[in-house]
Amino acid sequence: MGQLNTKDLLVQVMDSSSFLLRPWTVDEYYQMAKTGILQPDEKVELIAGQIIRNMTPQGSFHAAAITRTNRLLNQPVQPRFLVRSQLPIQLDNRSEPEPDLALVKSDPLDYDDRHPKAEDVYLIIEIADSTLKTDLTLKKQVYAEAKIPDYWVLDLAKRQLYVYRQPTEEGYQQEQILSERQSIAPLFFPDFQVKVGEMLKPMPVSENDG
Q1: Are 160 and 71 in contact (CB under 8 A)?
Q2: Read out DSSP for 42-94?
Q3: What are 62-109's pLDDT values in tens digits?
Q4: What percent of the chain has pLDDT over 70?
Q5: What gap in Å lies between CA 177 and CA 9, rounded to an integer?
Q6: β-strand partners of 150
Q7: What's the pLDDT score for residue 67?
Q8: By CB distance 3.0 to 4.6 Å, which of 93, 143, 177, 201 could disulfide with 148?
Q9: Beta strands in the chain, from DSSP E residues, in sequence order
Q10: Rounded distance between C-alpha atoms, residue 159 and residue 155, angstroms
Q11: Between the CA of residue 117 and those of 57, 107, 121, 202, what are the distances in Å?
Q12: What is the arithmetic mean of pLDDT over 40-52?
């Protein structure tokens, strides 16, 4: 049996019941960026007190889905809300994620003096390919605990939308999965219908369909 490397040993230690990770605060997170511990080009988020690095480059499939969804949301319903893409939302002192898309309350200064807080959020949308497991577990729980009222996860591979509502400390009490043929409206804007399929890459039309 070969000698374990540092990474393997660290995993073993972290799995032990006596080991606890020290959670970071939002203030400490920003201090690390200010002092250069976190580099400006690092793709990181503070989730439940832990700094999580996104190691997967954003592919065109993911980026295009964000663009499509952003365009759908930026229709003539404003200024009822602002659409923010991959920008910080301060949920509490331990979590400041940067969701792919968020509908937040309109602000006269466009949040120039602060990031939106949990109570400013109408809807959070995560576009999921390689991040699906995290979006449906860790992030879902963090958003529920922060009382985010409406949370959607667009599954690019299965071409479906997970919708979570009625947040509690234990998690979301209402869950549903919509196919690409279905439509849904944000919880706070029931007159604003969004087709799931329009957030996804168009499927090629077969000769039989023509």
Answers
A1: no
A2: --EEEETTEEEE--S---HHHHHHHHHHHHHHSSTTTTSEEEESS---B-SSS
A3: 888 888 888 888 875 556 889 999 999 999 999 999 999 999 998 888
A4: 83
A5: 40
A6: 165
A7: 86
A8: 143
A9: 44-47, 50-53, 81-84, 101-105, 121-128, 150-155, 160-168, 171-179, 183-184, 194-195
A10: 6
A11: 27, 12, 7, 34
A12: 83
Q: Residues near 107 by Cβ (< 8 Å), separated by ≥ 6? A: 82, 116, 120
Q: Give burial (CB, 10 Å; 0-12/13-18/19+) of 200.
A: buried
pTM of the model: 0.80
Q: What number of residues does the chain have?
A: 210
Greater confidence (1 vs 58) lies with 58
Q: Which residue is listed with tokens 């043929």?
A: 181
Nearest to 135 by CA among 154, 115, 119, 120: 154
Amino acid identity of 139? K
